[in-house]
Amino acid sequence: MPIFISTRESDDQLRKKVREISGQNFQQCYQCGTCSGSCPMIEHINVFPRRIMALLQLGNRKALEESNTPWVCASCHTCMVRCPRGIDITKVMEALRLIKLRQNIDRIELKKLEPEQIADMPQIAMVSGFRKMTS
Amino acid sequence: MSTTTEDKETKSAAIEAKLIPIYIMGKKYEVPESLTIMKAMEYAGYKYIRGCGCRGGVCGACSTIYRKPNDYKIYTGLACQTVVEPDMYLTQLPFYPAMRATYNFYDLEGKPEEIFELYPELFRCVACNACTKVCPMDVEVMDYIAALKRGDIKAAAQISFDCIQCGLCASRCMGELPQYHIAQLARRINGTYLTPRAEHLKTMVANIQAGRYKEALEGLKASDEDNLKKLYTGREMEPATAGEDWTPKDSTYL
Amino acid sequence: MKIAYYPGCTLKTKAKNLELAALACLDKLRVEYEELPRWNCCGAVFSLADDDLIHMVAPVRDLIRVQERGQDTVLTLCSMCYNTLARANDLMKNDEEKRKTINDFMDEEPDYEGNVRVVHLLDFIRDDYGFDKLKEHITAPLNGMKVAPYYGCTLLRPKEVALDRPDNPIVFHKFLEVIGAEVIDFGSATKCCGAYQVLGAPEATLQVSHEIISDAVNNGAEALALTCPLCDYNMGKRQDQILEKFDDAKELPVYYFTQLLALAMGLESGVAHFELNREIAQKLLKKKNLIKT
């Protein structure tokens, strides 16, 4: 899949926001792909972490918003401990989630969860899931 | 509330009192310093149609939020119980919309998971403690939510015992929890399933059903009013200083 | 001084087998501990946003509870609680600016400077109690039962709170060796099980959990040992769904590390509450003559 580069569509606000929330300088990423190679969710995300970093460098909001990657990320920190550039990619993913959540847009709806599922799940699944996917 | 006698009482009692300034929803009023917020609002001309109930500090209808000069803290109190202070800024928050789950109580078995199902938002609590800080009854709201998250219904029921359902906790909650409704369910479950049954009550009901008091009741029903009065005033009463082992002289019905 | 014990919410309901087995072992080992009389949910996940401090309040409050009791160490069993408390502690210790903001925000609590030590039972045994001393208490070793140690994420990542080297840990291997298991090393020992994505992406979680179990089985494991109630949910309790969905899936008994410890210490098997695991967990132990039939 090609990446469409356009100065007109480069969203500096988004870059700034992600930097602010994550505290990470994703411009340092040199696209080695170690993160993608380490990601346990690689088969289930539609944009690999390496490409997320590239899209961010380009400020491509549209492509980032279409990606499910931050929402399938389980914050396992594998990419973070292995990144040769010392970028905490997990924090970058959190920032991308929060940009949506802070607009009061939830990823999951509590009232749509099956009662049986709630009764079955351990509390930490709900506490952590709600933190990551509800505003 | 519209009794004019009460208005007169309020005003006459206030004649001697010193007047102090308070701000109701931003507007300044001079009110007698000894009044409660509720009386002061009535003194200032407000008429309660809602947001006022028992006037005795137990119904939770008149919760009020206020601030003091040069103090960042939010203070709360029941308007019927809290005495006005000079330069307080106040507004009433007698009602706060909070989602109450629908359930048929007798379909429940009293398990923590049932509370989780009805109120999954429980797990959105971040332990910020804003609820406890705002509670006019000094209930440790955050602590009972913490107890419920770990499934300890009994602890939650005990900690929330003084709750009067005013809803201020919910108004401050960043997790959007209806704490007081959840606590009410916990207390219902605690009362029904977790508290030991009173065995003596069972025996008593059985005794009544077996007709043990039938004769005595029939006797009372057949008595005229004078005799009833005589029996009532002449009954043996437990002295205020009686110890645990006190028993009445006539123990026919024990 | 008694050490403070922080259980975490899940251990009081869904993961009683993790807690009860551990407490029985601690009693036998004569470790003096005391459950915090007042504690709240730690938040399960550490907030990863630089500008978000409100989610630090819950774990810091728990650490203040420890400090209030005059205790300097808090022991955890759940790896998610460990991670959240340890990271919050780290932040309070090292980030002066955030420490001040958090302390100012919690104006109803005493200030906290990060002086409590957060430990997990695994590093507590290694560093405080000692594997050698533990060995003396192993009266019923696991007879070479082939167990794969599954670390998961939160004991090892990020580095600041890691119990061991994030990419090549040995502490859990060592633990299993001491209790008499044959340790099965496998590549997925530190791979994520999908964690809370059981809510957001349940199918993906099922698949990664399946891959971890398969990896253990293919390396010859007869059982998987783990430390986290969410891992146990994804790979233990939800194994029915894994078996249903994947043709090549094989059933694998899953145990909490504390349950195996209780067994190896010769404690009565009731304390480990194997009835709360999947049925196969008891079957294997019976087959191995580790519990009576």
Written description of the protein model:
The complex is a heterotrimer of chains A (135), B (254) and C (293). Chain A is built from 9 helices and no strands. Chain A is mostly helical and 135 residues long. Chain A has helices at residues 12-22, 34-38, 49-58, 61-66, 69-72, 78-82, 89-101, 115-120, 123-133. Chain A has 2 domains: 12-103, Alpha-helical ferredoxin (Fumarate Reductase Iron-sulfur Protein, Chain B, domain 2); 107-135, no CATH class. Chain B is of the alpha+beta class. Among the domains of chain B are: 15-92, Ubiquitin-like (UB roll); 105-194, no CATH class. Chain B has 11 helices and 5 strands. Chain B has helices spanning 4-14, 37-43, 112-118, 130-134, 141-149, 153-159, 168-172, 179-194, 199-209, 214-222, 225-233, and strands spanning 19-24, 27-32, 63-67, 75-78, 89-92. Chain B has a 5-stranded mixed sheet, with helices on one face. In chain B, strand 3 (63-67) and strand 4 (75-78) form a beta hairpin. Chain B is flat, with a radius of gyration of 25 Å. With 293 residues, chain C is of the alpha/beta class. Chain C has 2 domains: 3-122, Up-down Bundle (Glutathione S-transferase Yfyf (Class Pi), Chain A, domain 2); 134-287, Rossmann fold (3-Layer(aba) Sandwich), CATH 3.40.50.11810. In chain C, helix 2 (54-68) crosses helix 3. The longest helix of chain C is centred in the C-terminal third of the chain and has 17 residues, at 202-218. Chain C has 13 helices and 8 strands. The chains are: A mainly alpha (135), B alpha+beta (254), C alpha/beta (293). The interface between B and C is medium-sized, with 19 and 19 residues.
> Going by CATH, what is the homologous superfamily of the largest domain in chain A?
Alpha-helical ferredoxin
Helix content of chain B: 25-40%
Can you tell me the CATH class of the largest domain in chain A? Mainly Alpha
Distance between the termini of chain B: 47 Å
Shape category of chain A: globular
Main sheet of chain B: which strands, in order across? 2-1-5-3-4
Number of domains of chain A: 2
Radius of gyration of chain B: 25 Å
User: Biggest sheet of chain B, open or closed, and with what strands and sense?
Assistant: 5 strands, mixed
Give the uncertain stretches of chain A in residue-range form: none
